[in-house]
Amino acid sequence: MTEPLTGRNVLVTRPPGQSDALKRLIEAEGGTALVLPMIETIRTEDWDPLKKRAAEKKWDWVIFTSANAAAYFSELLAEVPLSVPETCRTAAVGKKTAEAVRKRGWPNPLLPRVSDGDGLADLLQSRVRPGDSVLFPKSVRARSVIADVLQREGAYVHELPLYTTAAAYQNREQLLSWIQEGTIDLLTFTSPSAVKAFAHFVRNMPKKDWQGLDTVSIGSITDNEAAKHGFVSRRTAEPSTVEGIVRTLTAF
């Protein structure tokens, strides 16, 4: 029996170190995964104020919206040094982020029904109490929806912008070459930043060369970014996981 992605090349745009699971699932369905990160993560320059902020008081919650946030937060704790109190509660945006939290021995995180920032904000709105101290390790580019919701509920939110993302310019020429050669059959995005970087790289190409690529985004926020940049053949993964991405790819 022929697998549904047999003979199809799928572009995987995830950052280095985060593409293995998606690549493996694509190959299990018969596809060829073309791994070409559109972005890379970079530690922000001055962590000293962030270390001080993290050490100032006892935390009731630590909130994670990406595996990167968990990794950089682990680095920060090691440098202070600090540990996550056993009494502290944690929450994660999705299963992969939760795995990154559990791997470091931190309290088992709560998970929202919908794996995106809005879903996590909805979950926390009913769990976080007025006066709770919430630590929020994050990207500089992270949306403010979670912090805004919790602050309105009376929580004290301490944001820690530990890292940022930048376009992976070293991969631009390979991307343009694959598009020109018609190598890419399917395209995947797992963050709005990856969409923005892709659009930046192809800005001087004829739109007809890339706008019609069948595209799967991990969630509605990423899909909205793809729509904004002119992708016309789009679907959103259901559920918002790498497994959901591959399931949606097989439906094209």
UniProtKB/TrEMBL annotation:
Any coiled-coil regions, as ranges: none
CDD domains referenced in this protein's UniProt entry, alphabetically: HemD
Keyword hit for Methyltransferase: yes
GO process annotations (BP): methylation; protoporphyrinogen IX biosynthetic process; uroporphyrinogen III biosynthetic process
SUPFAM superfamilies xref list: HemD-like (SSF69618)
Organism this protein belongs to: Salibacterium halotolerans
Family stated for the protein in its record: Belongs to the uroporphyrinogen-III synthase family.
Enzyme class, spelled out: lyase
Gene Ontology MF term list: methyltransferase activity; uroporphyrinogen-III synthase activity
Residue ranges of domain Tetrapyrrole biosynthesis uroporphyrinogen III synthase in the record: 20-246
Recorded superkingdom: Bacteria
Identification of the protein by name: Uroporphyrinogen-III synthase
Keywords, sorted A to Z: Lyase, Methyltransferase, Porphyrin biosynthesis, Transferase
Substrates-to-products reaction catalysed: hydroxymethylbilane = uroporphyrinogen III + H2O
Pathway(s) it belongs to: Porphyrin-containing compound metabolism; protoporphyrin-IX biosynthesis; coproporphyrinogen-III from 5-aminolevulinate: step 3/4
Function (record text): Catalyzes cyclization of the linear tetrapyrrole, hydroxymethylbilane, to the macrocyclic uroporphyrinogen III.
Enzyme Commission number: 4.2.1.75
Alphabetical list of Pfam families matching this protein: HEM4
